[in-house]
Amino acid sequence: xxxxxxxxxxxxxxxxxxxxxxxxxxxxxxxxxxxxxxxxxxxxxxxxxxxxxxxxxxxxxxxxxxxxxxxxxxxxxxxxxxxxxxxxxxxxxxxxxxxxxxxxxxxxxxxxxxxxxxxxxxxxxxxxxxxxxxxxxxxxxxxxxxxxxxxxxxxxxxxxxxx
Length: 163
Ligand code: SF4
Ligand code: SF4
Fold this sequence. Notes:
alpha+beta; Alpha-Beta Plaits; 13% strand; elongated
């Protein structure tokens, strides 16, 4: 091997070793002197008082009319049609103003929180809430039915209230 190639190789090795030492120095400095900024989520919540900012698009919920106690949803199916991830399934019964959903599911495991379903809804029936934690042990538990979706929206600000 020509001498200049050997010198290049040694220079590369020295440079590589210096990079490793520099990296380890920074890592050790952070470990010893910096305050920890991570948490063992979901086993420990980062901050019990944490609230996402206004307009945050979190988990979905179905809105109940406070006067009638009925869901605003008329099972028109527009949210189902617009959802790019095919998460929503709606079945309704009745005609005109009497039409109501008898089955409404959203697969939150597939949802990408785009908000199109809530935006397209003509009856202010579907909203995204500030709820940001949704981890579960079994993925099937992320298929939310009508009762679950109704409960999720209760007491939560709706998208239309925070924009
Ligand atoms: S937020 Fe987007 S992906 Fe999620 S259910 Fe609505 S339309 Fe589908
Ligand atoms: S949530 Fe809105 S868009 Fe979806 S079926 Fe009900 S009324 Fe229609």
